[in-house]
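User: We ran a pulldown and think these components assemble together. Before we commit to crystallization trials, I'd like a predicted model of the whole complex to look at. Sequences follow.
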Amino acid sequence: MQPKDSLVDAVAENLLDRLEDCKRTFPTTLCMGGSLEAVRRLLRGRGGIEKLIMMDTSNDMVKLCKNAEMRMPNENIETSYVVGDEEFLPIKESSLDLVISCLGLHWTNDLPGAMIQARLALKPDGLFLAAILGGDTLKELRIACTVAQMEREGGISPRLSPLAQVRDAGNLLTRAGFMLPGVDVDEYTVRYKNPLELIEHLRAMGESNALIHRGKILNRETALATAAVYESMFAAEDGTVPATFQVIYMTGWREHPSQQKAKQRGSATISFKDIQKQFGQSDER
Amino acid sequence: MLRFGRVLFKEAGTGISKTLSEILVCPLSKQPLRVCEKTNSLISDSIGVSYPVVDGIPRLVPSNGKIIDDEEASNSNSAVDPDAVKNDHQRCSS
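Assistant: Here's a predicted model for the assembly, 379 residues in total across the polymer chains.
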C-alpha cells in the first residue's frame, strides 16, 4: 500500500473505532471534508448509521464519493451527497446524531466557527468526532525549510499552513460549547526514500500549503537546498527520511440534561465543616 | 416504490432525496430552502438566493449562490411559460 493510503486509512480507522466505544447509535450522520472516501470505505457498519450525508467543498470530491458508492458493501445505509462548506454549514439545527470529520478541519479559516456550527447542527447528546493535523506535523520539513531559506534568502516566509497545537484543541472544543471534551494525540512517522517523495505524497494528499501568504515562488535553489538540509539533518542510515504527522483527535458532545456537570457556584448545601465533623479530625496517612 | 439498499427516494425533478430536503438549509441564513424543479435549484427565500443542483447533488457553498431578482422569483413560483425564465438564470447542466 502506498504511504499516503495507509496514513489516511489509519486515521479514519482510529476515528471510526471510537464509535464502538459508546453504546450509542448514530442514525443520522454527517461526514464532512477531508478523507470522506476513506471514512465511507472503512465504516463497516459501525455506529449504527442509517442515513449518511457526505459533504465536501469540492464538487469533484463529492462526485467521486458518489460514484464510489456503487462499490461499497451493502450496509443498508442511505447515503446523500451535498457540496457544502464547514464554515457555512447548510444543515438544520439539532438534526444530526453524529458529525465526523477526518483530516478536514485543519483547512478551515475559522475553525472555532466551523465547530460551533457543527455543534448547533447536532441534536442534544449528539457527538462531534474530528481528526485534525496538529502542530508537530512535518516538523522536519519546517526546520529544513527554515534553515534552507535563512541560508539562501536571508529570511523566512510561511511555507506550511498553520496547524493547531494540542493545547489549543481542548480550548477549541469548550469554546465551541461542547460538553465532555476529549482530546488525544497520535504521532505517525512515515518513511520516504527521499525528501522529494514526501513533497509528492503531500501533493497527492492535497495538503500543499493553502496559506494565501506563502511566498509565491519557491525558489528552485531553495527547494533543492531544503531537500539537502532535510536529508542531512534527518536521514536514517539507510538513506530514508522520516516525516512526522501529528494527528489530534477531538470528541465533544452537544449539551443534554442527562450529562453530568459541575453544580452551580453557591448551590452547596453542605459545608466542609460538616464533612470534617462527620469524619472526625482524621490524620493523614 | 421499489427500494434497493442504496437508492434514495427522490423528489420529482431535482432528484434530491427526502432526507436531504428535510435537513438542508441555506448556508448563510440557516433558513429552510424551497425546491424549484423548473430551474433545478434550491431557493432561499429569506435572502433571495438560489443554489444549483447538479446531477442530483445540491451545491450549497455560498459562492455557488445566485441572487435572484423579483421577476425570476415570481417566474419560479408559477407553473407557466419556461421562456419567461431569464437566460442568465443559473444553468444546471455543466
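Chain A touches chain B through 31 residues (CB under 8 Å). That may be worth checking against your pulldown data before setting up trials.

User: Thanks, that helps.
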